[in-house]
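Summarise this fold before class:
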Amino acid sequence: MPQITNVQTSLKTNSIQVTGDFGDKSEAELLPELSEILKPLGYTLSLNPTIKPVSWSDFAIAIPVALTFIFGFILLQKLGIVNLVNTSEVTYGTAFFVGLIASVSTCMAVVGGLVLSLSANFAKEGDKTKPQILFHIGRLVSFFLFGGIIGALGAFVQFNQTTTLILGIFVAFVLLVLGINLLDVFPWVKRLQLFMPSSLSNKANTLKKTNHTLTPFLVGAATFILPCGFTQSMQFYTLTTGSFFKGGLTMFAFALGTLPVLALLSFSSLGIHNKGQSSIFFKTVGLVVIFFAIFNLLSALVGAGIIDPFFTL
């Protein structure tokens, strides 16, 4: 909007500060005008904090769907297609599978806005395809290279049974907080979520404003450091590989898993927030992520020899 000069948003306080030249209009007069613009995106504005009611009825659909998905995962695990027995046995198929889940949850939230913003910026210049291709290539290349570097660094770190257990518990905690946040039932849990330093994530976001041919590639590469919990979890896994190629291929497989949904998002302006069923969708994903958290915790305990193996044939 031409009259707006600056906007500052905060997910911590669920607030937005809008600055601009609005003439003699009062806040009460501006409120419906600005809300009308955001309505198609599923957002509304108010002068005072509002308490969002919890849609408990959504769980009537979310729970059966999530259980079906979880049953499918356990079946794949029994068949040996995916394996999460401990932090040192993540297969490339598992990494791809986790990437698919990430792409419809945290990656959609963290990287999705960046993709749409990048699309809008370059669409103004009349180029809608090439920047998007460069973005996704940059993402895949960086995940392989940086994943390889993390894996190589892991060769210099000694992972004894205790270290592996602590790492597994930490990853389970990260996933548990993510899953509970996706349920959108307990707002206070957001305070427990881990975030990258704002200085790093801000630099990644400001890259998109640079007018250069390689900007989309660099923005795609920078998504490796954005605060996506699944990405962070896979980075921890990669550290345990102790190998450049194993680490690189693990992160590459993960990024490849996120590609289909993020590509749809960038090329077709796909937006799950525009759907009326978005609340059910995110609750379903949240339940699946909580399952992954519990699964990782139990796997860490199995790896440490504290409990007997489970989900065995």
